[in-house]
Amino acid sequence: MTVRSFEKLIKASPFQFEKFEAVPIRAVRRLHNRFTRELFTSVVRSKLIRKPSRDQGSESSGDAHFQPRLKTAASQSGESDPVRKP
Length: 86
Description:
There is one protein chain. The chain is α+β, with helices and mostly antiparallel strands. It has a domain at 1-51. The chain is 22% helix and 23% strand. The chain has 3 helices and 2 strands. It has helices at 3-12, 37-40, 73-77, and strands spanning 15-24, 41-50. The longest helix has 10 residues, at 3-12. The protein is elongated and about 45 Å long. It starts with a helix and ends in a 9-residue tail after the last helix.
């Protein structure tokens, strides 16, 4: 994956960069700059944070409406699942 495609992927996701560092290949460190970073970057170090929500009144992550499905012993044994109503 290129550095540019990684940046585009993060821009399209619900995250943003808090820190971003393109670490150059050691042997060509002197040639590493913004024009050559696609060729001479060894690894990218970054820290991601969730983007602030557009609606400040609601919960920022949108997890208030998300309820994960848990596998219960009843659902694995074929009995009726208490989370799922027929």
